[in-house]
What does this fold into?
Amino acid sequence: MKKNQNIIKLRLPGSLYQQILADLKRPHAFAYERVGFAFAQSTLLANQSWLINFTEYKPVEDQHYIEDDTVGARIGGTAIRNAMQTVMNKNCSGFHVHLHNHKGQPWPSGDDKEGLPGIIESLANCDPNQPHGVLILSKNSFYAWVEIKGEIQLVMPEIITAIQYPMVIQFHERNKPSINNLLSRQSFLGERSAAIFEHIKVVLVGLGGGGSHLVQQLAHLGVLHFTLFDFDRIEDSNLNRLVGAHYADIKKRTLKTEIAKRLILSINPKAEVQIIISRWQDNAQALQVGDVVFGCVDTYEDRSQLEAECRRYLLPYIDIGMDVHQSDEGFQMSGQLILSMPGQPCMRCMGFITEDKLAKEAAKYGKVGGRPQVIWPNGLLASSAIGIFTDLVTGWSGQKDRLVYMAYDGNSGTIQKHVRLDYLPPTCQHYDITQVGPPKFKKL
Amino acid sequence: MKFSEEEINDLKAIIPSVSYANEGGYDYLLLEQLNLPDGCQPSVMDVLLCPNQRDGYQSRLFFASQVAGGPTRNWNGNIRALGRNWYAISWATSPGLNLVEMLAIHLKALRNP
It folds into this structure.
Protein backbone atom coordinates (compact mmCIF):
# COMPACT_ATOMS: atom_id res chain seq x y z
CA MET A 1 0.00 0.00 0.00
CA LYS A 2 1.18 3.50 -0.64
CA LYS A 3 0.63 6.80 1.04
CA ASN A 4 -1.25 9.10 -1.26
CA GLN A 5 0.50 12.28 -2.37
CA ASN A 6 -2.79 14.09 -2.10
CA ILE A 7 -4.83 14.19 1.05
CA ILE A 8 -7.56 11.63 1.69
CA LYS A 9 -9.60 12.20 4.83
CA LEU A 10 -12.24 9.79 6.10
CA ARG A 11 -14.83 11.07 8.56
CA LEU A 12 -17.53 9.11 10.36
CA PRO A 13 -20.30 10.81 12.32
CA GLY A 14 -20.17 9.60 15.91
CA SER A 15 -23.64 8.04 15.82
CA LEU A 16 -22.77 6.06 12.68
CA TYR A 17 -19.46 4.95 14.20
CA GLN A 18 -21.27 3.66 17.30
CA GLN A 19 -23.88 1.94 15.13
CA ILE A 20 -21.16 0.17 13.13
CA LEU A 21 -19.26 -0.91 16.24
CA ALA A 22 -22.42 -2.26 17.87
CA ASP A 23 -23.41 -4.14 14.75
CA LEU A 24 -20.02 -5.70 14.14
CA LYS A 25 -19.79 -6.93 17.73
CA ARG A 26 -22.96 -9.01 17.40
CA PRO A 27 -22.22 -12.74 17.32
CA HIS A 28 -23.16 -14.71 14.21
CA ALA A 29 -24.35 -18.32 14.14
CA PHE A 30 -21.18 -19.56 12.44
CA ALA A 31 -19.04 -16.65 11.20
CA TYR A 32 -16.27 -15.53 13.56
CA GLU A 33 -16.71 -11.89 12.64
CA ARG A 34 -19.31 -9.70 11.02
CA VAL A 35 -19.14 -7.55 7.92
CA GLY A 36 -21.03 -4.50 6.74
CA PHE A 37 -20.84 -1.83 4.09
CA ALA A 38 -20.55 1.88 4.82
CA PHE A 39 -21.46 4.49 2.25
CA ALA A 40 -20.04 7.97 1.96
CA GLN A 41 -20.52 11.27 0.18
CA SER A 42 -17.13 12.13 -1.23
CA THR A 43 -15.81 15.51 -2.32
CA LEU A 44 -12.92 15.95 -4.72
CA LEU A 45 -11.10 19.17 -3.96
CA ALA A 46 -9.29 21.35 -6.47
CA ASN A 47 -5.93 19.92 -5.36
CA GLN A 48 -7.16 16.39 -6.14
CA SER A 49 -7.58 15.55 -2.47
CA TRP A 50 -10.65 13.63 -1.30
CA LEU A 51 -12.91 14.24 1.66
CA ILE A 52 -14.86 11.05 2.30
CA ASN A 53 -17.75 11.61 4.71
CA PHE A 54 -19.71 8.55 5.75
CA THR A 55 -23.47 8.84 5.99
CA GLU A 56 -24.92 5.34 6.00
CA TYR A 57 -24.19 1.79 7.10
CA LYS A 58 -25.80 -1.47 6.03
CA PRO A 59 -24.96 -4.70 7.84
CA VAL A 60 -24.56 -7.86 5.81
CA GLU A 61 -27.64 -9.92 6.57
CA ASP A 62 -27.19 -13.18 8.48
CA GLN A 63 -28.21 -15.38 5.58
CA HIS A 64 -25.62 -13.81 3.28
CA TYR A 65 -22.64 -15.32 5.15
CA ILE A 66 -21.05 -18.50 3.81
CA GLU A 67 -19.79 -21.12 6.26
CA ASP A 68 -16.00 -21.27 5.94
CA ASP A 69 -13.75 -22.12 8.90
CA THR A 70 -10.62 -20.90 7.16
CA VAL A 71 -11.51 -17.20 7.37
CA GLY A 72 -13.14 -14.88 9.92
CA ALA A 73 -16.12 -14.20 7.67
CA ARG A 74 -16.98 -15.04 4.11
CA ILE A 75 -19.88 -13.25 2.51
CA GLY A 76 -21.82 -14.31 -0.54
CA GLY A 77 -22.40 -12.61 -3.84
CA THR A 78 -25.79 -11.24 -2.81
CA ALA A 79 -24.25 -9.13 -0.03
CA ILE A 80 -21.70 -7.67 -2.43
CA ARG A 81 -24.33 -7.10 -5.13
CA ASN A 82 -26.52 -5.26 -2.61
CA ALA A 83 -23.64 -2.95 -1.75
CA MET A 84 -22.91 -2.42 -5.45
CA GLN A 85 -26.55 -1.54 -6.01
CA THR A 86 -26.42 1.11 -3.28
CA VAL A 87 -23.31 2.64 -4.83
CA MET A 88 -24.98 2.67 -8.21
CA ASN A 89 -28.29 4.10 -6.95
CA LYS A 90 -26.79 6.81 -4.79
CA ASN A 91 -23.62 7.70 -6.72
CA CYS A 92 -21.73 7.32 -3.51
CA SER A 93 -18.55 5.73 -2.17
CA GLY A 94 -18.80 2.20 -0.79
CA PHE A 95 -16.57 0.68 1.87
CA HIS A 96 -16.35 -2.91 3.10
CA VAL A 97 -16.25 -2.69 6.92
CA HIS A 98 -15.22 -5.23 9.53
CA LEU A 99 -13.89 -5.26 13.07
CA HIS A 100 -10.65 -6.53 14.59
CA ASN A 101 -11.83 -6.80 18.15
CA HIS A 102 -8.82 -5.43 20.02
CA LYS A 103 -7.46 -2.04 21.07
CA GLY A 104 -4.91 -0.09 19.04
CA GLN A 105 -4.56 0.32 15.33
CA PRO A 106 -5.80 -2.68 13.35
CA TRP A 107 -3.83 -3.99 10.39
CA PRO A 108 -5.16 -6.06 7.51
CA SER A 109 -4.65 -9.79 7.88
CA GLY A 110 -3.35 -12.02 5.12
CA ASP A 111 -6.94 -12.98 4.29
CA ASP A 112 -7.91 -9.30 4.17
CA LYS A 113 -5.05 -8.55 1.77
CA GLU A 114 -6.03 -11.43 -0.42
CA GLY A 115 -9.80 -11.15 -0.42
CA LEU A 116 -10.78 -7.52 0.00
CA PRO A 117 -9.20 -5.80 -3.03
CA GLY A 118 -11.59 -7.79 -5.22
CA ILE A 119 -14.59 -6.43 -3.34
CA ILE A 120 -13.27 -2.87 -3.68
CA GLU A 121 -12.90 -3.49 -7.39
CA SER A 122 -16.52 -4.61 -7.62
CA LEU A 123 -17.70 -1.42 -5.91
CA ALA A 124 -15.44 0.68 -8.13
CA ASN A 125 -16.94 -0.92 -11.22
CA CYS A 126 -20.32 0.53 -10.22
CA ASP A 127 -19.05 4.09 -9.96
CA PRO A 128 -15.38 4.44 -10.89
CA ASN A 129 -15.39 8.19 -10.31
CA GLN A 130 -15.95 7.79 -6.58
CA PRO A 131 -13.33 6.49 -4.14
CA HIS A 132 -14.17 3.09 -2.63
CA GLY A 133 -12.36 0.99 -0.10
CA VAL A 134 -12.03 -1.06 3.01
CA LEU A 135 -12.41 0.20 6.55
CA ILE A 136 -11.16 -1.94 9.41
CA LEU A 137 -12.19 -0.92 12.90
CA SER A 138 -10.65 -1.93 16.19
CA LYS A 139 -12.12 -1.03 19.57
CA ASN A 140 -10.56 2.42 19.39
CA SER A 141 -8.87 2.89 16.03
CA PHE A 142 -9.05 2.37 12.27
CA TYR A 143 -7.25 1.21 9.19
CA ALA A 144 -8.37 1.91 5.64
CA TRP A 145 -7.48 1.34 2.03
CA VAL A 146 -8.94 3.51 -0.66
CA GLU A 147 -9.09 2.98 -4.40
CA ILE A 148 -8.86 6.26 -6.24
CA LYS A 149 -9.46 6.53 -9.96
CA GLY A 150 -6.12 6.93 -11.72
CA GLU A 151 -4.08 5.42 -8.87
CA ILE A 152 -2.64 2.00 -9.62
CA GLN A 153 -2.27 0.97 -5.98
CA LEU A 154 -4.72 1.18 -3.11
CA VAL A 155 -3.83 4.16 -0.96
CA MET A 156 -4.03 4.87 2.77
CA PRO A 157 -5.87 7.95 3.97
CA GLU A 158 -3.95 10.63 5.80
CA ILE A 159 -6.42 10.70 8.65
CA ILE A 160 -9.54 8.83 9.74
CA THR A 161 -11.75 10.41 12.37
CA ALA A 162 -14.94 9.54 14.21
CA ILE A 163 -16.70 12.81 14.96
CA GLN A 164 -17.79 12.40 18.56
CA TYR A 165 -16.67 13.59 21.99
CA PRO A 166 -13.89 12.63 22.32
CA MET A 167 -12.93 12.12 18.70
CA VAL A 168 -11.30 8.89 17.55
CA ILE A 169 -8.37 9.91 15.39
CA GLN A 170 -6.03 7.68 13.41
CA PHE A 171 -3.16 8.63 11.14
CA HIS A 172 -1.33 6.49 8.64
CA GLU A 173 1.84 6.39 10.77
CA ARG A 174 2.96 2.95 11.91
CA ASN A 175 5.57 4.31 14.32
CA LYS A 176 4.58 4.88 17.89
CA PRO A 177 4.69 8.59 18.63
CA SER A 178 7.11 9.82 21.25
CA ILE A 179 6.64 12.79 23.50
CA ASN A 180 9.73 14.95 23.36
CA ASN A 181 10.93 17.11 26.19
CA LEU A 182 9.17 20.19 24.85
CA LEU A 183 5.80 18.61 25.64
CA SER A 184 6.85 16.39 28.56
CA ARG A 185 4.78 18.33 31.11
CA GLN A 186 1.59 17.55 29.20
CA SER A 187 2.26 13.83 28.77
CA PHE A 188 -0.82 13.14 30.93
CA LEU A 189 -2.88 14.09 27.88
CA GLY A 190 -2.09 10.62 26.56
CA GLU A 191 0.76 8.87 24.79
CA ARG A 192 -0.76 9.70 21.40
CA SER A 193 -1.45 13.34 22.24
CA ALA A 194 1.77 14.70 20.78
CA ALA A 195 1.16 12.87 17.51
CA ILE A 196 -2.42 14.09 17.39
CA PHE A 197 -1.29 17.69 17.81
CA GLU A 198 1.36 17.13 15.14
CA HIS A 199 -1.07 15.75 12.58
CA ILE A 200 -4.32 17.52 13.17
CA LYS A 201 -5.10 20.59 11.08
CA VAL A 202 -6.84 23.44 12.85
CA VAL A 203 -8.65 26.17 11.00
CA LEU A 204 -9.20 29.56 12.58
CA VAL A 205 -11.62 32.10 11.20
CA GLY A 206 -10.99 35.55 12.67
CA LEU A 207 -7.62 36.51 14.10
CA GLY A 208 -8.66 39.36 16.34
CA GLY A 209 -8.98 39.43 20.11
CA GLY A 210 -10.15 35.82 20.43
CA GLY A 211 -8.29 34.20 17.55
CA SER A 212 -4.92 35.65 18.52
CA HIS A 213 -5.14 34.03 21.96
CA LEU A 214 -6.18 30.74 20.35
CA VAL A 215 -3.23 30.51 17.95
CA GLN A 216 -0.80 31.31 20.74
CA GLN A 217 -2.12 28.51 22.94
CA LEU A 218 -2.47 26.02 20.09
CA ALA A 219 1.17 26.62 19.18
CA HIS A 220 2.25 26.07 22.79
CA LEU A 221 0.16 22.90 22.87
CA GLY A 222 2.15 21.48 19.95
CA VAL A 223 -0.32 21.92 17.10
CA LEU A 224 1.67 22.07 13.87
CA HIS A 225 -0.82 22.64 11.06
CA PHE A 226 -2.76 25.88 10.89
CA THR A 227 -5.02 27.49 8.33
CA LEU A 228 -5.80 31.10 9.23
CA PHE A 229 -8.55 33.19 7.66
CA ASP A 230 -8.70 36.95 8.09
CA PHE A 231 -8.55 39.74 5.54
CA ASP A 232 -8.16 42.52 8.10
CA ARG A 233 -5.13 44.63 8.95
CA ILE A 234 -4.32 45.82 12.44
CA GLU A 235 -5.47 49.27 13.51
CA ASP A 236 -4.47 51.24 16.59
CA SER A 237 -7.74 50.34 18.33
CA ASN A 238 -6.85 46.63 18.10
CA LEU A 239 -3.66 46.83 20.15
CA ASN A 240 -5.54 46.61 23.45
CA ARG A 241 -6.32 42.93 22.85
CA LEU A 242 -4.46 41.48 19.85
CA VAL A 243 -1.96 39.04 21.31
CA GLY A 244 1.33 39.07 19.41
CA ALA A 245 0.82 42.52 17.92
CA HIS A 246 3.64 45.04 18.20
CA TYR A 247 3.27 48.80 18.33
CA ALA A 248 5.19 48.97 15.04
CA ASP A 249 2.51 46.85 13.34
CA ILE A 250 0.06 49.73 13.56
CA LYS A 251 2.18 51.93 11.32
CA LYS A 252 2.87 49.03 8.95
CA ARG A 253 -0.80 48.04 8.95
CA THR A 254 0.30 44.43 9.26
CA LEU A 255 -2.23 41.78 8.31
CA LYS A 256 -3.73 40.03 11.33
CA THR A 257 -2.92 36.69 9.72
CA GLU A 258 0.75 37.72 9.44
CA ILE A 259 0.80 38.70 13.12
CA ALA A 260 -0.70 35.32 14.03
CA LYS A 261 1.77 33.47 11.81
CA ARG A 262 4.69 35.35 13.35
CA LEU A 263 3.43 34.47 16.82
CA ILE A 264 3.01 30.78 16.00
CA LEU A 265 6.44 30.49 14.39
CA SER A 266 8.10 32.29 17.30
CA ILE A 267 6.77 29.52 19.55
CA ASN A 268 7.30 26.64 17.15
CA PRO A 269 9.42 27.27 14.04
CA LYS A 270 8.37 23.88 12.64
CA ALA A 271 4.70 24.86 12.41
CA GLU A 272 3.09 24.97 8.98
CA VAL A 273 0.88 28.01 8.72
CA GLN A 274 -1.32 28.69 5.73
CA ILE A 275 -2.71 32.19 5.74
CA ILE A 276 -5.70 33.12 3.64
CA ILE A 277 -6.39 36.82 3.25
CA SER A 278 -10.01 36.55 2.29
CA ARG A 279 -13.37 35.57 3.64
CA TRP A 280 -13.50 31.83 4.23
CA GLN A 281 -16.50 31.69 1.90
CA ASP A 282 -14.22 32.66 -0.97
CA ASN A 283 -11.82 29.82 -0.18
CA ALA A 284 -14.11 27.26 1.39
CA GLN A 285 -12.08 24.18 0.44
CA ALA A 286 -9.25 25.34 2.69
CA LEU A 287 -11.75 25.21 5.53
CA GLN A 288 -13.26 21.88 4.53
CA VAL A 289 -9.87 20.16 4.60
CA GLY A 290 -9.29 21.08 8.27
CA ASP A 291 -10.01 18.74 11.16
CA VAL A 292 -11.32 21.19 13.77
CA VAL A 293 -12.55 24.73 13.09
CA PHE A 294 -12.45 27.65 15.52
CA GLY A 295 -14.69 30.62 14.83
CA CYS A 296 -14.00 34.04 16.35
CA VAL A 297 -16.35 36.03 14.18
CA ASP A 298 -18.42 39.10 14.92
CA THR A 299 -21.94 38.27 13.78
CA TYR A 300 -24.61 35.62 14.19
CA GLU A 301 -24.87 35.42 10.39
CA ASP A 302 -21.14 34.60 10.14
CA ARG A 303 -21.53 31.95 12.81
CA SER A 304 -24.58 30.49 11.14
CA GLN A 305 -22.79 30.10 7.81
CA LEU A 306 -19.65 28.68 9.41
CA GLU A 307 -21.67 26.14 11.34
CA ALA A 308 -23.57 25.10 8.21
CA GLU A 309 -20.33 24.48 6.33
CA CYS A 310 -18.83 22.57 9.25
CA ARG A 311 -21.92 20.38 9.56
CA ARG A 312 -21.81 19.61 5.85
CA TYR A 313 -18.20 18.43 6.06
CA LEU A 314 -18.41 16.79 9.51
CA LEU A 315 -16.12 19.30 11.18
CA PRO A 316 -16.29 20.04 14.90
CA TYR A 317 -16.79 23.80 15.26
CA ILE A 318 -15.72 25.73 18.37
CA ASP A 319 -17.18 29.20 18.68
CA ILE A 320 -16.14 31.93 21.09
CA GLY A 321 -17.32 35.50 21.41
CA MET A 322 -17.94 38.28 23.88
CA ASP A 323 -19.82 41.53 24.08
CA VAL A 324 -20.19 44.51 26.36
CA HIS A 325 -23.66 46.01 26.69
CA GLN A 326 -24.69 49.20 28.41
CA SER A 327 -27.86 49.33 30.46
CA ASP A 328 -29.27 51.51 33.22
CA GLU A 329 -27.28 49.48 35.72
CA GLY A 330 -24.00 50.06 33.91
CA PHE A 331 -21.90 47.84 31.68
CA GLN A 332 -22.63 44.15 31.36
CA MET A 333 -19.97 41.87 29.92
CA SER A 334 -20.98 38.46 28.60
CA GLY A 335 -19.71 35.81 26.25
CA GLN A 336 -20.02 32.23 25.11
CA LEU A 337 -18.06 29.14 24.28
CA ILE A 338 -19.89 26.59 22.14
CA LEU A 339 -18.79 23.31 20.68
CA SER A 340 -21.01 22.48 17.71
CA MET A 341 -20.58 18.79 16.90
CA PRO A 342 -22.07 17.36 13.71
CA GLY A 343 -24.95 15.09 14.65
CA GLN A 344 -25.47 16.85 17.99
CA PRO A 345 -27.75 19.84 18.67
CA CYS A 346 -26.53 22.92 16.80
CA MET A 347 -26.29 26.57 17.82
CA ARG A 348 -29.89 27.05 16.70
CA CYS A 349 -31.05 24.10 18.80
CA MET A 350 -29.15 25.72 21.70
CA GLY A 351 -31.06 28.96 21.19
CA PHE A 352 -27.83 30.86 20.60
CA ILE A 353 -28.68 31.66 16.97
CA THR A 354 -32.29 32.70 16.46
CA GLU A 355 -34.23 34.35 13.66
CA ASP A 356 -34.90 37.26 15.99
CA LYS A 357 -31.17 37.85 16.59
CA LEU A 358 -30.41 37.50 12.88
CA ALA A 359 -33.17 39.97 12.02
CA LYS A 360 -31.97 42.55 14.56
CA GLU A 361 -28.43 42.14 13.34
CA ALA A 362 -29.47 42.57 9.70
CA ALA A 363 -31.44 45.70 10.61
CA LYS A 364 -28.26 47.20 12.07
CA TYR A 365 -26.26 46.27 8.95
CA GLY A 366 -23.35 48.69 8.49
CA LYS A 367 -24.07 50.51 11.75
CA VAL A 368 -22.14 48.27 14.10
CA GLY A 369 -19.27 50.71 14.69
CA GLY A 370 -16.39 50.02 17.09
CA ARG A 371 -17.85 47.70 19.69
CA PRO A 372 -16.30 47.62 23.15
CA GLN A 373 -13.66 44.88 23.44
CA VAL A 374 -11.00 44.09 26.02
CA ILE A 375 -8.30 41.50 26.34
CA TRP A 376 -9.19 39.42 29.41
CA PRO A 377 -12.56 37.96 28.46
CA ASN A 378 -11.12 37.00 25.09
CA GLY A 379 -8.24 35.33 26.89
CA LEU A 380 -10.51 33.50 29.30
CA LEU A 381 -12.86 32.27 26.57
CA ALA A 382 -9.94 31.26 24.34
CA SER A 383 -8.27 29.34 27.18
CA SER A 384 -11.52 27.53 27.91
CA ALA A 385 -11.91 26.75 24.20
CA ILE A 386 -8.40 25.29 24.09
CA GLY A 387 -9.33 23.11 27.06
CA ILE A 388 -12.36 21.80 25.18
CA PHE A 389 -10.33 21.28 22.00
CA THR A 390 -7.64 19.36 23.89
CA ASP A 391 -10.18 17.09 25.54
CA LEU A 392 -12.05 16.65 22.25
CA VAL A 393 -9.00 15.40 20.36
CA THR A 394 -7.20 13.53 23.16
CA GLY A 395 -10.01 12.45 25.48
CA TRP A 396 -7.69 12.98 28.46
CA SER A 397 -10.48 13.82 30.95
CA GLY A 398 -12.44 10.64 30.29
CA GLN A 399 -15.65 12.59 29.63
CA LYS A 400 -17.84 11.18 26.88
CA ASP A 401 -20.56 12.63 24.64
CA ARG A 402 -20.10 16.03 26.23
CA LEU A 403 -22.20 18.93 24.97
CA VAL A 404 -20.56 22.31 25.42
CA TYR A 405 -22.33 25.63 25.76
CA MET A 406 -20.60 27.75 28.38
CA ALA A 407 -21.90 31.15 29.39
CA TYR A 408 -19.41 33.77 30.51
CA ASP A 409 -20.41 36.51 32.92
CA GLY A 410 -17.68 39.10 32.77
CA ASN A 411 -19.08 41.14 35.66
CA SER A 412 -18.82 38.27 38.11
CA GLY A 413 -15.86 36.69 36.33
CA THR A 414 -17.48 33.27 36.03
CA ILE A 415 -17.94 30.80 33.20
CA GLN A 416 -20.43 28.00 33.62
CA LYS A 417 -22.62 25.52 31.77
CA HIS A 418 -25.44 27.37 30.03
CA VAL A 419 -28.87 26.56 31.40
CA ARG A 420 -30.18 25.86 27.88
CA LEU A 421 -28.14 22.65 27.77
CA ASP A 422 -30.76 21.12 30.07
CA TYR A 423 -33.51 21.72 27.53
CA LEU A 424 -31.95 20.55 24.28
CA PRO A 425 -33.67 18.26 21.81
CA PRO A 426 -31.98 14.83 21.69
CA THR A 427 -30.89 15.32 18.09
CA CYS A 428 -30.30 18.33 15.89
CA GLN A 429 -33.46 19.82 14.40
CA HIS A 430 -31.68 21.75 11.65
CA TYR A 431 -28.89 19.64 10.15
CA ASP A 432 -29.64 16.12 9.05
CA ILE A 433 -26.96 13.55 8.32
CA THR A 434 -28.39 13.22 4.81
CA GLN A 435 -27.13 16.76 4.16
CA VAL A 436 -23.50 15.73 4.66
CA GLY A 437 -21.18 16.14 1.67
CA PRO A 438 -21.66 18.11 -1.52
CA PRO A 439 -25.19 19.58 -1.64
CA LYS A 440 -27.75 17.51 -3.46
CA PHE A 441 -30.86 19.18 -4.87
CA LYS A 442 -34.04 17.27 -5.43
CA LYS A 443 -35.70 18.02 -8.77
CA LEU A 444 -39.29 19.16 -8.34
CA MET B 1 -41.35 22.44 2.68
CA LYS B 2 -44.91 23.66 2.98
CA PHE B 3 -45.85 24.57 -0.60
CA SER B 4 -48.54 22.92 -2.66
CA GLU B 5 -48.01 20.97 -5.83
CA GLU B 6 -50.00 23.67 -7.62
CA GLU B 7 -47.69 26.45 -6.47
CA ILE B 8 -44.64 24.49 -7.52
CA ASN B 9 -46.19 23.73 -10.92
CA ASP B 10 -46.94 27.43 -11.39
CA LEU B 11 -43.32 28.19 -10.66
CA LYS B 12 -42.16 25.50 -13.07
CA ALA B 13 -44.29 27.07 -15.79
CA ILE B 14 -42.03 30.13 -15.51
CA ILE B 15 -38.78 28.31 -14.96
CA PRO B 16 -38.78 24.59 -15.70
CA SER B 17 -35.64 23.74 -13.75
CA VAL B 18 -36.69 23.94 -10.12
CA SER B 19 -34.98 21.86 -7.47
CA TYR B 20 -35.12 21.79 -3.69
CA ALA B 21 -32.69 21.49 -0.81
CA ASN B 22 -32.64 22.31 2.88
CA GLU B 23 -29.77 23.60 4.97
CA GLY B 24 -29.78 24.79 8.55
CA GLY B 25 -33.55 24.52 8.69
CA TYR B 26 -34.07 26.83 5.70
CA ASP B 27 -35.82 25.64 2.54
CA TYR B 28 -34.20 26.65 -0.73
CA LEU B 29 -35.46 26.44 -4.30
CA LEU B 30 -32.74 26.52 -6.91
CA LEU B 31 -33.96 28.14 -10.13
CA GLU B 32 -31.34 27.48 -12.75
CA GLN B 33 -30.70 29.88 -15.60
CA LEU B 34 -33.51 32.25 -14.72
CA ASN B 35 -34.11 35.09 -17.18
CA LEU B 36 -33.60 38.38 -15.36
CA PRO B 37 -35.51 41.59 -16.20
CA ASP B 38 -34.53 43.59 -19.29
CA GLY B 39 -31.25 45.45 -19.03
CA CYS B 40 -29.75 43.20 -16.37
CA GLN B 41 -26.19 42.06 -16.79
CA PRO B 42 -25.88 39.13 -16.90
CA SER B 43 -29.32 38.51 -18.31
CA VAL B 44 -29.56 34.87 -17.20
CA MET B 45 -28.47 33.54 -13.85
CA ASP B 46 -28.94 30.80 -11.25
CA VAL B 47 -30.92 32.09 -8.29
CA LEU B 48 -31.84 30.60 -4.94
CA LEU B 49 -35.23 31.41 -3.49
CA CYS B 50 -35.52 31.06 0.27
CA PRO B 51 -39.27 31.14 0.96
CA ASN B 52 -38.78 31.11 4.76
CA GLN B 53 -38.27 34.00 7.15
CA ARG B 54 -34.59 34.78 7.10
CA ASP B 55 -32.46 37.68 8.36
CA GLY B 56 -35.58 39.69 9.16
CA TYR B 57 -37.11 39.23 5.70
CA GLN B 58 -40.21 37.18 4.92
CA SER B 59 -38.32 35.58 2.03
CA ARG B 60 -35.08 36.20 0.18
CA LEU B 61 -33.86 35.78 -3.36
CA PHE B 62 -30.17 35.06 -3.66
CA PHE B 63 -28.31 35.62 -6.92
CA ALA B 64 -25.18 33.79 -8.08
CA SER B 65 -23.48 37.18 -8.48
CA GLN B 66 -24.40 40.83 -8.11
CA VAL B 67 -26.43 42.05 -11.06
CA ALA B 68 -25.58 45.21 -12.99
CA GLY B 69 -27.78 47.22 -15.30
CA GLY B 70 -30.71 47.66 -12.92
CA PRO B 71 -31.38 50.40 -10.38
CA THR B 72 -28.86 50.97 -7.60
CA ARG B 73 -29.80 48.65 -4.78
CA ASN B 74 -28.54 47.73 -1.34
CA TRP B 75 -26.81 44.37 -1.87
CA ASN B 76 -26.68 43.53 1.82
CA GLY B 77 -26.74 39.75 1.60
CA ASN B 78 -23.54 37.90 0.84
CA ILE B 79 -23.84 34.36 2.08
CA ARG B 80 -22.60 30.88 1.50
CA ALA B 81 -25.40 28.36 1.28
CA LEU B 82 -25.50 24.88 -0.17
CA GLY B 83 -21.89 24.98 -1.25
CA ARG B 84 -22.01 28.25 -3.21
CA ASN B 85 -21.70 31.94 -2.52
CA TRP B 86 -24.81 34.02 -3.10
CA TYR B 87 -25.78 37.72 -3.10
CA ALA B 88 -29.07 39.31 -2.13
CA ILE B 89 -30.68 42.73 -2.28
CA SER B 90 -32.35 44.20 0.77
CA TRP B 91 -35.90 43.76 -0.51
CA ALA B 92 -38.97 43.13 1.58
CA THR B 93 -41.87 40.89 0.60
CA SER B 94 -45.19 40.53 2.37
CA PRO B 95 -46.15 37.40 4.26
CA GLY B 96 -48.60 34.95 2.68
CA LEU B 97 -47.37 35.12 -0.92
CA ASN B 98 -47.23 32.12 -3.18
CA LEU B 99 -43.92 31.16 -4.78
CA VAL B 100 -44.56 32.89 -8.11
CA GLU B 101 -45.62 36.11 -6.39
CA MET B 102 -42.57 35.93 -4.17
CA LEU B 103 -40.24 35.54 -7.15
CA ALA B 104 -41.95 38.29 -9.11
CA ILE B 105 -41.70 40.79 -6.26
CA HIS B 106 -38.03 40.02 -5.70
CA LEU B 107 -37.32 40.48 -9.41
CA LYS B 108 -39.02 43.87 -9.29
CA ALA B 109 -35.96 45.10 -7.43
CA LEU B 110 -34.00 44.69 -10.66
CA ARG B 111 -36.46 46.44 -12.96
CA ASN B 112 -35.61 49.91 -14.16
CA PRO B 113 -38.43 52.39 -13.46
User: Anything to note?
Assistant: Chain A touches chain B through 34 residues (CB under 8 Å). Residues 123 and 211 of chain A are 44 Å apart (CA to CA). Chain A has two domains: 8-170, 181-423. The mean pLDDT of chain A is 94.
